[in-house]
Amino acid sequence: MIKVSCFRVFVAALCGAMTVVAQAPPRFDIILRHGTVIDGTGLPRYRADVGIAGGHIAKVGDLSGERGATEIDVTALFVAPGFINIHSHAAVSALPTAENMLTQGVTTEILNPDGGGSTDIAAQLSRSSVAGLAVNIGAYIGFNAIWADTMGPADRRATDADIARMRTLVASGLDKGAWGVSAGLDYKPAYDAQVEEVVRALEPAAKWRTNFPNHDRLTPESRFSSRVGVGETIAIGERAGLMPVVTHMKAQGLEQGTAGSLLSLMQQATARGAYTAADAYPYLAGQTGLGALLIPAWAQDGGRDQMLQRFADPSQRARIVAETEQAMNARFGGAAGVFLPQTKEELTDIMREMEVSAGEAVVRLLEKGNVGAILRFGSEPDLVKILQHPTTSIACDCGASTDTRQHPRAFGTFPRVLGRYVRDQHVLTWEDAVRKMTALPANTIGMIDRGFLAPGMAADVTVIDPATVIDHATYEDAGQLSEGIRIVLVNGRIALRDGMVTGEQGGRVLARDAHMPSRAMSITTRRLRITGQVRLKPDATYDFRIDLAQAANATRAKGSIRVTNTASGEVLDATDLGVLQTTKDWASMTAMVRARPSGETRAATLIVEHADPFVDGRPRTVTIDVDGRPRITGVLQ
Q1: Which of 50, 76, 227, 269 has the fewest CB atoms within 10 Å, measured from its CB?
Q2: Which pLDDT value is given to residue 24?
Q3: What kind of architecture, by CATH, is found in domain 81-284+377-501?
Q4: What is the C-alpha to C-alpha distance for residues 87 and 330, in angstroms, rounded to an integer?
Q5: Which residue, among 414, 526, 287, has the nearest Cα to 422 in the 3D structure?
Q6: pLDDT (tens digit per residue) in 422-447
């Protein structure tokens, strides 16, 4: 009896203990189990679980002994960082749902490419997010918007006062969190800006170590040469002290077959110290306003009303028609290169119906109103070379939209690359394609907490079915959703599951700060070792002890991070390290850190400036952001 009673007591105690364990809260909000991780580094894929907590990647590895509040089996699927579209023309009305972007795996969009948008990006982003965001958004400050706001629609030279105003607007945009200074010098009226004027306006941005993505200017004087346009983009960025980015790169019209020459210009610039990047989409046609790249600049001078007056003058009309056809032939292969998506008509069919020439048809269409056009420009071998170039990011030149009568890139870009150019044609590896959609664009614009699947990074995650991922949108039916993107998380919230949007609005407005330089990806062995103190005020001193290293072939860093509050005695120790990112005089790292004595674990982002350009004397500074806590930042003594 004694033995039985003891046994019963033992069983009861054991059951009680098991009950306590079962009721303990799970360590992770979400665990993605048994997937194949492609982490954004470009290094080989590997099998791992991914644990997410507090909107961040908390752990990547074997989590078989852990539980998540939500667990999803992703066996046979690829788990990647969320895709970053650095060339977004998103419609504000579509951002609350962003179905066309989530079904492509996109979690972040950068607005105001081609120099567009508002000169007050803080107000613009506030308006854009008022109804909620299904994806993250950020913005460039647009040179075209600044030029038009300062100079008006007419072709005139900038005075010193004009340049001073533009410089102020550039600096203000960057101070408000812009991810670079974009331009579209192919578009009027910024088309009228001379190189020296652009450089002078952009010079204040050099201190921010940011980027200059430009839609290249192709002029009749150069015979609409892509080579000349790319060269101009590089020259402006290099002279202004910014990273040149050849945006939606292409070898157009008469210069088809010369992509190698264009890429050589980029490589030469990089070799002389002006690292140059690009972005591209996987199509042989673009989309813009029908007249934007066809009607000669002089005819557009002063705006639409003055352009229509020139159309009404018989002698000027004849010249406009002739020069429009010259541009059409040189850039887009003639009338056969023009398609109108709103009416789903070829320009050649409209010409036959009207019984007029190509140029006259364009003028007549524009007299009725502004109309969009898909313009065919390139060759497949050129596109492949551009996609393969190591500094080319994938960007769709599109954005969140519900418009189904437009370019298919708005619904298909990222899955098209993965399905057509990776799986089917083996033009890119899975690892490199994901890198071009994640870490590479993040580095290009200066992001430090997205782009990699690593501890401490924001939990923007895209889960891909490699067997089925593909685009379905066509020029005739552009609104067909892609398939094969199975799950998308935005800041740790499930925005897409089983290929269907959930309605979650986990997106945020993302702002760049002074310590996020545009840079090439870190690919060599790198180290970071610092010791010292940051004094915020007399009774708040933090002791930093950091010793990190990452080998060229390693997906994550090794070493230690310790931050001690010398007044309270609290110690922050890194428990799981992310990717050590470096460039000249700068380093950054994300990690999970545990506080002692409380034991709480949070995501953290560390930045070290070895010569901070925003502090007098360019001292060494350190910044650490621990999720949910005030920023610790100051001069390291």
Answers
A1: 76
A2: 75
A3: Alpha-Beta Barrel (3.20)
A4: 25
A5: 414
A6: 999 999 999 999 999 999 999 999 99
